[in-house]
Amino acid sequence: MCASATRRVFPLVARTLIVFACLAGTAVAETEYVRPPPRRVIFTEHTESASHPQQVHVSLVGADHMRVSWVTDDKHAPSVVEYGVVSGNYTASTAGDHTSYRYFLYTSGKIHHVTIGPLEPSTVYYYRCGRAGHEFSLRTPPSALPIELAVAGDLGQTEWTASTLAHVSKADYDVLLVPGDLSYADTQQPLWDTFGRFVQRHASRRPWMVTQGNHEVEAAALPFNVPGAPRPFAAYEARWRTPHEESGSPSGLYYSFDAAGGAVHVVMLGSYAPFNASSEQYAWLKRDLAGVDRENTPWLVVLLHAPWYNTNAAHQGEGEAMRKAMERVLYEARVDVVFAGHVHAYERFTRVYDNKANPCGPVYITIGDGGNREGLAFDFQKNHKLAPLSVMREASFGHGRLRVVNATAAHWAWHRNDDADSVVRDELWLESLATSAECGKRADPGSARGSPIDEL
Ligand SMILES: *[C@@H]1O[C@H](CO)[C@@H](O)[C@H](O)[C@H]1NC(C)=O
Ligand SMILES: *[C@@H]1O[C@H](CO)[C@@H](O)[C@H](O)[C@H]1NC(C)=O
Ligand SMILES: *[C@@H]1O[C@H](CO)[C@@H](O)[C@H](O)[C@H]1NC(C)=O
């Protein structure tokens, strides 16, 4: 493979040099694909009237409802969504609520949130926000398997982000999962508005389910306590409201939801909310997982921002405290996959528990390569102690797709952005740990303590 690739690309003299590189190791594999630099930020403007809805996005709320969220500059625009299954014929209308927030001199527009439903599964609904502006359409997810979950982290709003989202939409999917770092506004609040407009064409059509990253924290870096200073996550929580009450979570920073009629349970953890054994998040996670019946829910998927397993120098060790606090809880619940962002590269580990390969541990996947302006992480550490557990790693922009086919099988594929093309660079079939003979009920061959798992 080394030789054929070099023949295509390099003239004779260079080829000779590259043959030496081939003999020397894997260096040439990296010359075959030139990892791209970051691209420019796209600032999406609002050119319509103040009452015209903008930044429209939808998210799941419970089994058969969806939240429609949007912003108007006009403070008097109504928080109403009209919708129906025929374009232009709105047979239902629902009112919701609104919020806004201040960040020093910035005041947000009116942020509307309206929960519509009950909705039929796998159905296209046409809707209009605030009785003004264009019609949008969304499709509800299926109420049974199969379901296709797209995954993209660390998005930002650059030309690479546009490319990633175009690739996500090019093939059909049901829900987009985002393991944190959305706008990269980094306290510049108008960038939350440009981001909302930038993603609207995708986020208004399919539910986006998000958790927070470090770029959502936006704590005011003040040396002393200023009255009225913005609190952390002010923009994120006002704009990207999560359905946390529905899963009994006291905080918008962590929650869970079911997909495909409960065949898939997705847990969104908060890397930037307290997570130790005495935290509310920890207690909630234990409660939430205890309520999952793996007979009816063969798939358990977790998202968080700062990866627990990572062989890059970038952000090395940042997820370690959370791993130490929570890894055992996920392991005992037989979580199938854990997606993280934060590191701007793709990396997939084998099934792991407590830094060792373990057939009953989750597959850990870092997918923080959505396209943001900070660019890619190029610093894989070949000598890292976890390197032998890292099956596939590549510093390229891209997205992933988890197609859960049935109770036992799911297909994972990571697609690299090859400019205009989306190329599958990593794929594998996963077997649900709930139905696996080795790791399912009662069996516990890999536990560190060797004690039987009595609670699944
Ligand atoms: C709109 O939908 C309703 C209910 O399905 C139907 O009775 C009505 O004829 C439709 N109107 C138009 C203009 O299509
Ligand atoms: C958990 O974190 C809190 C502060 O966030 C600290 O006060 C407490 O001692 C920690 N508890 C444990 C068990 O580590
Ligand atoms: C689940 O899907 C996989 C992959 O398509 C297939 O091989 C397997 O037979 C299916 N299992 C069941 C129980 O349908």
From TrEMBL:
Keywords recorded for this protein, A-Z: Glycoprotein, Hydrolase, Signal
Leader sequence residues: 1-29
Catalytic activity: a phosphate monoester + H2O = an alcohol + phosphate
Residue ranges of every copy of the Calcineurin-like phosphoesterase domain listed in the record: 150-346
Top-tier EC class: hydrolase
Domain (Purple acid phosphatase N-terminal): residue spans on this chain: 53-137
GO molecular function: acid phosphatase activity; metal ion binding
Segments forming domain Purple acid phosphatase C-terminal: 361-426
Entry keyword Ligase: no
Keyword Manganese appears in the UniProt entry: no
EC number(s) given by UniProt: 3.1.3.2
InterPro entries recorded: Calcineurin-like_PHP, FN3_dom, Metallo-depent_PP-like, MPP_PAP, PAPs-like, PAPs_C, PAPs_N, Purple_acid_Pase-like_N
Pfam families found in the cross-reference section: Metallophos (PF00149), Metallophos_C (PF14008), Pur_ac_phosph_N (PF16656)
Family: Belongs to the metallophosphoesterase superfamily. Purple acid phosphatase family.
Name assigned to this protein: Purple acid phosphatase
Protein's organism: Eleusine coracana subsp. coracana
